[in-house]
Design brief:
The chain is 82% helix and 0% strand. The protein is an all-alpha fold. The chain has one domain: Ferritin. The structure holds magnesium ion (MG) and fe (iii) ion (FE).
Length: 169
């Protein structure tokens, strides 16, 4: 199925660009967070996972014989979508950051579920397994954020009494 293979290759490239973007976003967020140590710690763990995800995708593409040159060339539409989403991360409030992070994880989960189904259809079980494995890491991150959202919101209200922007981060 050459058509299926073509899509899997393109979507792997998109996923790779997504993870590279995630690394940049997470690094930025970790550096901005001042008063939410549990959130910062969870993000550090996820940054390590994210780097490993990017590396696992590279190994996967190499095994498939997909060119890993020009990996930054994700499809233009996908890049535009991520840049739009990236804008939300520029906000320095922890609440907006959490909202944006959860949205990003949801996009990752969808990407890997789609990729896993596509790779399965192509008959590349190894790629399907990798995508399911990465998907579980994204789900765990999304679950953590979901679980901690109420407390982060309340903690933000405590800090929001201060006029100092730094205090809200
Ligand atoms: Mg990821
Ligand atoms: Fe993620």
């Amino acid at each position: 199925m050459p058509e299926t293979r073509k899509y899997v290759d393109q979507w792997l490239r998109d996923a790779h660009a997504m993870e590279a973007q995630a690394e940049t976003i997470l690094e930025g967020q970790i550096n901005r967070i001042r008063h939410y140590p549990a959130l910062a710690a969870r993000m550090k763990t996820h940054l390590e996972e994210t780097t490993s995800q990017r590396e696992r995708l590279e190994a996967c593409m190499e095994r498939r014989g997909t060119s890993t040159s020009g990996l930054k060339d994700a499809s233009a539409k996908f890049t535009a979508m991520m840049q739009n989403l990236g804008g939300v991360f520029a906000g320095d409030e922890v609440v907006k950051g959490t909202l944006a992070s959860y949205s990003f994880e949801a996009m990752e989960i969808a990407s890997y579920r789609i990729l896993a189904a596509a790779a399965e259809a192509e008959g590349d079980t190894q790629t399907a397994q990798l995508c399911n494995e990465i998907c579980r890491e994204e789900e765990a991150m999304a679950d953590w954020l979901k679980e901690h959202m109420p407390n982060l919101t309340l903690a933000f209200f405590d800090r929001a009494k201060s006029d100092d922007t730094e205090a809200k981060r």
